[in-house]
Amino acid sequence: MKALVYTRPQEVQYLERPMPELRPGEVILKIEAVGICGSDMHAWHGHDPRRKPGLVLGHEFVGQIVSSQAHGFAEGTRWTGNPLITCGTCEYCVQGRNNLCANRTMVGMTRDGAYAEYMSIPSASLISMPQDMPAAIGALTEPAATAWHAVNLSLRCLARPLHESKVLIIGGGAIGMLAALLLKHLGAAHLTLTELNPLRRSSVAKAVAGIQVLDPREKELENNQFDFVIDAVGAKQTRTQAFAAIKPGGVIMHIGLQDWSSEIDMRKLTLAEITLLGTYTYTTADLRATVDALHRGVFGDLSWVESRPLSLGQATFEDLDGGRLATAKALLIP
């Protein structure tokens, strides 16, 4: 089979690879569509020591079962999935918080992922989807579920209803875009998004009606103006921006992990009674709810998503890295 293999920093090659092995309790999927995630970009840059050269990346996928050694998972059926492979028995799994599984592994990190014609995966990680759902929509389940999980965690902490709150989203990538679309659907009336890439700013403005889209280098945000801030970048600079922009008593949701560590304004966190939340991926319940939301059109028509052949993977990574794509989400089609 053909696969896009991470060979060294800033390089993936379209190579011939052996078919995946079918193990008990697992299935082999013929991949229909797979997304490029920010974490895949991080790995492509050589910044993720967990993802080593020789690995097939990719964890945002839709595929059809072509072989199965799992009861109830028939050949010919179509699925998306949870790329986190969880144990099901640790304290977090039994609480329904399997995104925090103490023993988790991951498709596209600890085992080959979906940048390939075929991929193996435990059946327990599969998420059912309408069989007529377009692959390009189903493949958005994973990033959309990340936004879904983060927004739901945040809404529990807001002092006032969402429709009264001034909301700032830092970063117009896939998570920022999907969070904006979800918040708009949920009734957010005062939405602002900052993004450096002018092509993405234009894309966000077209996709999310009524949102204010800014270049933070040209228009500096005023301090203490927002009730709810989502940092979908996670750089040292954006963390500083988030703490400056948040009002006393507000909520900061930190999603992005561009920089692994930095200082934050602990004095403001304490004296202004700021709620700072971290989030990691999604639960199985989030993924199932997100499939339903995508199918019902909660995230809009998704016409801003761009698809390219898997064979053009290296060029697509380069275009994303160089800011030459307007889309916040690029899909690869084997």
Walk me through the topology.
Blueprint: E1 2-8, E2 11-16, E3 26-35, H1 38-44, E4 55-56, E5 60-68, E6 78-81, E7 84-85, H2 91-94, E8 105-106, E9 118-122, E10 126-128, H3 135-138, H4 141-155, E11 166-170, H5 174-186, E12 190-194, H6 198-207, E13 212-214, E14 226-231, H7 236-245, E15 246-254, H8 266-271, E16 275-278, H9 284-296, E17 306-309, H10 313-321, E18 330-333
Parallel strand pairs: 11-12, 11-14, 12-13, 14-15, 15-16, 17-18
Antiparallel strand pairs: 1-2, 1-4, 3-5, 3-9, 3-18, 5-6, 6-10, 7-8
Helix pairs in contact: 4-5, 4-9
Structure, explained:
It is a single chain. 27% of the residues lie in helices and 27% in strands. It has helices spanning 38-44, 91-94, 135-138, 141-155, 174-186, 198-207, 236-245, 266-271, 284-296, 313-321; strands at residues 2-8, 11-16, 26-35, 55-56, 60-68, 78-81, 84-85, 105-106, 118-122, 126-128, 166-170, 190-194, 212-214, 226-231, 246-254, 275-278, 306-309, 330-333. Helix 8 links the parallel strand 15 and strand 16 (275-278). The protein is globular and about 55 Å long. The N and C termini lie close together (10 Å). The mean pLDDT is 96.
